[in-house]
Specification:
Number of helices: 15
Organism: Planktosalinus lacus
Number of strands: 9
EC number: 3.2.2.31
Shape: globular
Domain HhH-GPD: 47-198
CATH topology of the largest domain: Endonuclease III, domain 1
Enzyme class: hydrolase
Radius of gyration: 25 Å
Distance between the termini: 67 Å
Number of domains: 2
Largest sheet: 5 strands, mixed
Order of helices and strands: HHHHHHHHHHHHHEEEEEHEEEEH
Catalytic activity: Hydrolyzes free adenine bases from 7,8-dihydro-8-oxoguanine:adenine mismatched double-stranded DNA, leaving an apurinic site
CATH architecture of the largest domain: Orthogonal Bundle
Length: 355
């Protein structure tokens, strides 16, 4: 009942006017906010999924410079797209981005659908991205619900439904839709996301200067740090990777492409031995991997494993330097390996290691 009362209060107070007025004074100058071109908006939304703006901005600028139009992106090969994406993580986003660009060119002559329903049918575009593009580019009154919106609404309206549940997705979408400025949906959506990102932050929100503080349930009941609520996360899986970095006298190395489903699909890596625990490899295990004429020496590059944390698994990584006299014709020239898309942990190794 309390939530309904607050919705009515904010409706009468013109929630959207308060928010948009705040946005006009406080919004950051970001390049995708200067356009309603659906390609640019779509690109920014895909890049910024699960990525902070301070990290994603440079990637957006590189993509727009390299692929100014959806036609340019569609014509690119996947490895070029993955290389440009390198370091952003969640590489399925990049593969879906490329797939959708080709689909839009092939089926819609490069013109994105102009409504939420059709946008949502495109690969990699869910409720949030479809709502963002439809509202910002086509003024369709579709409310966005992302992490920032969950946080703002859960605090302001005191909603304790765990945000990583199906029930919450429906509940917050309904609430956001009821608050949406029907005449200016794009501006409202951007304002709500910006408010969550810069004002109603996850840690140390700026409550003292908040435009909603007099009516915010979380602020007035001491629950700001408790909201939003998430159910317990899935157990994190530990994996133990040993990369074998072959260095030959003829200045070649070995790379392999990860083609199986899972992390880093279609990225390149050095030959990998995955173990069930953190134990050190023995020489026989390494020799079994290769069909090369002679292994001259094997050196452990980092005795302490590098811990690389992903959302659902923690990787414990060692690099082994394998020196040999010659690599067969399928080897990769060491001078060329920077051309290939690799996981960021391997790119960091390449930059540190002097071949």
């Amino acid at each position: 009942m309390q939530e309904v009362i607050f919705v009515r209060i904010f409706t009468s107070m013109n929630f959207s006017k308060l928010l948009i007025d705040w946005y006009q004074l406080n919004k950051r100058a970001l390049p995708w906010r200067k356009t309603t071109n659906p390609y640019a908006v779509w690109l920014s939304e895909i890049i910024l999924q699960q990525t902070r703006i301070d990290q994603g901005l440079s990637y957006y600028e590189k993509f727009i410079e390299t692929f100014p139009t959806v036609f340019d992106l569609a014509k690119a090969d996947e490895e070029t797209v993955l290389k440009l994406w390198q370091g952003l993580g969640y590489y399925s986003r990049a593969r879906n981005l490329h797939h959708t660009a080709k689909f839009v060119v092939e089926h819609f002559n490069g013109t994105f659908p102009d409504n939420y329903k059709e946008l949502k049918k495109l690969k990699g575009i869910g409720d949030y991205t479809a709502s963002a593009i439809a509202s910002i580019c086509y003024d369709e009154p579709q409310a966005v619900v992302d992490g920032n919106v969950f946080r703002v609404l859960s605090r302001v309206f005191g909603i304790e439904t765990p945000i990583n549940t199906t029930q919450a997705a429906k509940e917050f979408k309904t609430l956001a839709q009821s608050l949406l400025d029907q005449t200016n949906p794009g501006e409202f959506n951007q304002a709500l996301m910006e408010f969550g990102a810069t004002q109603c932050k996850p840690q140390k929100p700026l409550c003292s200067g908040c435009i909603f503080k007099d009516h915010c349930i979380a602020f007035n009941t001491g629950k700001v740090t408790l909201l939003p609520i998430k159910t317990s996360k899935l157990k994190v899986r530990n994996r133990y990777f040993n990369y074998l970095v072959v260095v030959s006298a003829n200045e070649k190395t070995l790379l392999e492409k990860r083609t199986q489903n899972g992390i880093w699909k279609n990225l390149y890596q050095f030959p990998l031995i995955e173990k069930e625990n953190n134990s050190i490899l023995n020489t026989a295990e390494i020799e079994d991997v290769f069909d090369i004429t002679k292994i001259e020496s094997v050196t452990l590059f980092n005795e302490k494993p590098i811990q690389h944390k992903l959302s659902h698994q923690h990787l414990h990584i060692r690099f082994w330097i394998v020196n040999t006299d010659m690599i067969p014709k399928d080897g990769y020239a060491i001078s060329e390996i920077n051309k290939y898309p690799v996981p960021v942990v391997i790119q960091n190794f390449i930059e540190r290691f002097s071949f």
